[in-house]
Design brief:
Blueprint: E1 11-14, H1 18-30, E2 36-40, E3 57-60, E4 73-76, H2 85-92, E5 96-99, H3 100-108, E6 116-121, H4 126-139, E7 144-148, E8 164-168, H5 171-175, E9 181-186, H6 194-197, H7 200-212, E10 214-220, H8 224-229, E11 236-239, E12 245-248, E13 251-254, E14 257-260, H9 270-285, H10 290-293, E15 308-313, E16 316-320, H11 327-335, E17 341-347, H12 357-367, E18 375-380, H13 385-394, E19 403-405, H14 409-421, E20 427-432, H15 445-456
Parallel strand pairs: 1-2, 1-4, 2-3, 4-5, 6-8, 6-9, 7-8, 9-10, 10-11, 16-20, 17-18, 17-20, 18-19
Antiparallel strand pairs: 12-13, 13-14, 15-16
Helix pairs in contact: 4-9, 14-15
C-alpha cells in the first residue's frame, strides 16, 4: 500500500510512541488534507508531540473500545501484535492493517534510485550486525542510512537518499512485512517474545517471513536449526560455512585463509565474530571490497548495553550486557569472558516462565571443562532470580563463589563488590547479563544498563 492509496480513507495510527509520531509527520506532509486519529491505550509520554490540528484526534482508550473495525486502514506501531483479538476483529470487519515499514517500502520500490535495501534480523545480534555493516560500508565510501528497529523509524528518514539502506528488523516488523529486500540476513534464531507472537512456531514463521521475498537470504550455517528451517529457500546464501566467511574460535576466515585473529576484533565473543562474518558476506554480495572494509574495524564502537565494558573500579571490570533477555544470550556472554578471569554474573529479571534447562546444560559442560572456571558466582535479581538459582542448585551445579539472591540491582552490585574482594589476584569481571526483560524494576533494558553503570561507580 502506497501513501496515495490512503487519500480519502478513514485512518487510525495505533501507538503514540516514536514510530507513531514519525508516521503522523509523514502523513501530515504528504497528505495535508487527510485527518487521522491517533489511538493509544496509555497516555503518550511526550504529550507535546500530539499538537492536534488539521482535524487530527488523539484517542486514549483500549483498542477493544475504539471501534477499530470502523476504520479503513490501521497503521500500527511494531509493538502492537496483529494476533490480538481486537486487531483480528477489526480485520474481520474490513479494516486493512499496515505499518510504517511497509508504507516506506511501498514508496521506496517505485523511486528508481538504485539504492539497495539490506534487512537484518535475528533473535540476538541484529543491532550489532546492522551498526557494524553500516560502519564498514561507510568506510568504503558508500552513502549508507541506518534505520529500523535500531531506534530510527524508517518513516523518520522519509525522503533521505542513500546508496545502501541498512535496516534492522525485529520479529514484530518481520511478521507482516510485505516489502522486498535486496538482501535479508538472519543471524540467529531461538524462541523469544512468545507473548507477542503466541507460540514458538509462529515466532519462527514470522522471522522467516522477511527472507522469503528477498534477492538474497543470508543465513547462519553454524546453526543446524536455521539450516533446517531455511532449507527450501532458493535464494539462500550461507555464512559460517567453510567455503566462505566463517569464524573458528573467534578468528575470521575466508575459506581456508585466516584473515583476522580474534584479538584484533573490537567485539567480545564468538557470536560477534559470527555477526562479522554475516556482515562481510553481505558486503561481498553488494560487490564491495569486504577485505578492505576490515581496515575500519578498529574504529567501530560497540553499541551500549551489549557486552559493553564500562571500565574498571578498584581493579574490577564492570560489563553491561543488559540487552541479554534470554538464556541463550547469557550463554554467549559467559562464553565470551576470558578463560583466566574471575566472573561474577548478575542474572534475572521479569519472569516470563522461560525454561532455563539450556543454561543448566551449558553450565554443566562449561564448568566441567576445566578445574579452574572463569565463572565464580551468580547473583540473582528480581523477579525470577530466585527461581533460576533454585533450578541451578537443584540441578547439582556448584560454583566456587556460590549463589546469592538480592532484592534489587543496587544491592546486587554491592554484593558483587564484596565478592570481588575475595578474588584478589585474578582479573575480576562483574557481568550483568540478566537473561530476562527489565520489568518490573526498570522501564527497559537501557534504563537497567544505565543504572548498572551508576551502581558500579565506574
Amino acid at each position: 500500500m502506497k501513501l496515495g492509496e490512503l487519500a480519502g480513507k478513514k485512518i487510525a495510527i495505533l501507538g503514540a510512541g516514536r514510530e507513531g509520531r514519525a508516521i503522523r509527520t509523514v502523513l501530515a506532509a504528504q497528505l495535508p488534507q487527510l485527518a487521522v486519529d491517533v489511538i493509544c491505550e496509555q497516555p503518550p509520554k511526550e504529550a507535546a508531540w500530539v499538537n492536534i490540528d488539521r482535524g487530527d484526534q488523539l484517542r486514549v482508550l483500549a483498542f477493544s473500545d475504539a471501534g477499530l473495525g470502523d476504520y479503513d486502514v490501521l497503521i500500527k506501531s511494531p509493538g502492537i501484535s496483529p494476533y490480538r483479538d481486537d486487531i483480528k476483529d477489526a480485520l474481520a470487519a474490513g479494516a486493512v492493517l499496515t505499518s510504517g515499514t511497509n508504507l516506506w517500502f511501498a514508496e521506496h520500490l517505485t523511486q528508481g534510485s538504485g539504492a539497495k535495501t539490506i534487512c537484518i534480523t535475528g533473535t540476538k545480534g541484529k543491532s550489532t550486525s546492522s551498526a557494524l555493516l553500516s560502519h564498514l560500508l561507510r568506510s568504503l565510501g558508500q552513502k549508507t542510512e541506518l534505520a529500523g528497529n535500531i531506534g530510527i523509524p524508517l518513516m523518520e528518514r522519509w525522503g533521505a537518499t542513500a546508496d545502501q539502506w541498512v535496516i534492522e528488523m525485529s520479529s514484530f516488523q518481520a511478521a507482516d512485512f510485505s516489502g522486498t529486500a535486496d538482501i535479508s540476513v538472519l543471524v540467529s534464531l531461538f524462541a523469544e517474545h512468545l507473548d507477542w507472537h503466541g507460540d514458538e512456531e509462529r515466532y519462527f514463521r514470522d522471522k522467516l517471513n522477511l527472507l522469503k521475498n528477498s534477492g538474497f537470504a543470508v543465513v547462519n550455517a553454524a546453526d543446524p536449526h536455521l539450516l533446517e528451517v531455511t532449507e527450501g529457500l532458493n535464494n539462500r546464501v550461507l555464512f559460517n560455512h567453510a567455503t566462505g566467511w566463517h569464524q573458528q574460535q573467534g578468528d575470521i576466515y575466508f575459506a581456508d585463509e585466516r584473515v583476522r585473529q580474534s584479538q584484533y576484533l573490537p567485539l567480545r565473543g564468538h557470536h560477534n565474530a559470527s555477526n562479522l562474518c554475516a556482515v562481510l558476506t553481505v558486503i561481498d554480495l553488494l560487490n564491495q571490497d569486504a577485505r578492505a572494509s576490515l581496515q575500519a574495524l578498529p574504529d567501530f564502537v560497540s553499541l551500549p548495553h551489549r557486552l559493553q565494558s564500562l571500565g574498571k573500579k578498584d581493579g574490577v571490570e564492570w560489563i553491561n550486557d543488559s540487552i541479554a533477555t534470554t538464556p541463550a544470550a547469557v550463554i554467549a556472554a559467559v562464553e565470551s569472558m576470558p578463560v583466566d578471569s574471575a566472573v561474577i554474573l548478575l542474572l534475572g529479571g521479569y519472569d516470563r516462565g522461560v525454561d532455563w534447562s539450556i543454561f543448566a546444560d551449558f553450565l554443566k559442560n562449561f564448568l566441567g571443562q576445566s578445574s579452574q572456571t572463569c565463572l565464580q558466582a551468580i547473583i540473582g535479581l528480581p523477579d525470577n532470580g530466585g527461581r533460576i538459582l533454585d533450578f541451578l542448585q537443584t540441578a547439582g551445579i556448584e560454583l566456587p563463589g556460590g549463589y546469592h539472591l538480592e532484592n534489587s540491582l543496587k544491592s546486587a552490585a554491592a554484593k558483587a563488590r564484596q565478592l570481588a574482594v575475595t578474588l584478589e589476584g585474578r582479573d575480576v569481571l562483574v557481568l550483568l547479563s540478566p537473561g530476562a526483560p527489565s520489568f518490573s524494576e526498570f522501564e527497559n533494558f537501557e534504563q537497567r544498563g544505565e543504572m548498572f553503570q551508576y551502581y558500579s561507580g565506574v
